[in-house]
Amino acid sequence: MNLKNAVALVTGGSSGIGHGIARSLIDSGARVAITGRDKAKLDKAAKELGAHPIQADVSKEADVLRTMRPRVRTWESLAADTMARARRYAVIQERLISPEGTFPAIGRSIAYRCGAFHLLAQMALLGELAPPLTGPRVRSALSMVIRRTLDAPGTFDAGWLTVGLAGHQPHLGENYISTGSLYLCATALLPLGLPPSHAFWTGPPEDWTQKRIWRGEDLPADHAI
């Protein structure tokens, strides 16, 4: 593989898998920057690899933004609009969840199951849910989706996920789907990054939009603008 003139950022590049990936990229001609939390360990690894060190903890949003902002000058001008679109799409995603926790089986990557709601889960983690969404409402909706997609008979084989949306449905999988990629469903669990004391967890359960509408409750119409 020839990656001459390519530029790569490898998180957790001080050791383990990240270090190995950085080594492979550099050996293929790429210019590589690596991140790590421990400065001494990071600097040592960067020197060994010939990589650029960036001290950062990528589990912290502030560190991610600090790492990227000086290197992607266009980011700041796009940030506000990107976040506004993300808030709106989170509202759309919540409205796609049926009263039973099902959702339209649309798209090539449907075998990622509840991972289809990655954006909704991430906005909850970031504290960026826009009205009428609340943390408890999203918690209830995501919990139901997770149960519907992961509790279905045939979902696991000897402890491993199988291809499908509601059980073992191999024909729903594209040729790029593998056992490993199925675990993208775990992105629906992103709110687990919130502390136990957060309102997302402590607030009383709330029914989500479709559940309320289909039991006859009168709700405001959805408006994009």
The count of β-strands is 5
* Number of structural domains: 2
**For the CA atoms, what is the radius of gyration?**
21 Å
The biggest sheet amounts to: 3 strands, parallel
The rounded distance between the terminal residues' Cα atoms is: 47 Å
| Backbone structural class | mainly alpha
The strand order across the widest sheet is 1-2-3
- Unreliable stretches, pLDDT < 50, 5 or more residues? none
Q: Helix fraction?
A: 25-40%
The rough form would be described as: globular
- Portion of residues in beta strands equals 5-15%
Provide a count of the helices.
Answer: 8
Order of helices and strands: EHEHEHHHHEEHH
Average pLDDT reading = 91
Secondary structure topology:
Elements: E1 7-10, H1 16-27, E2 31-36, H2 39-49, E3 52-55, H3 61-68, H4 75-95, H5 118-126, H6 135-150, E4 156-157, E5 160-161, H7 199-202, H8 209-213
Parallel strand pairs: 1-2, 2-3
Antiparallel strand pairs: 4-5
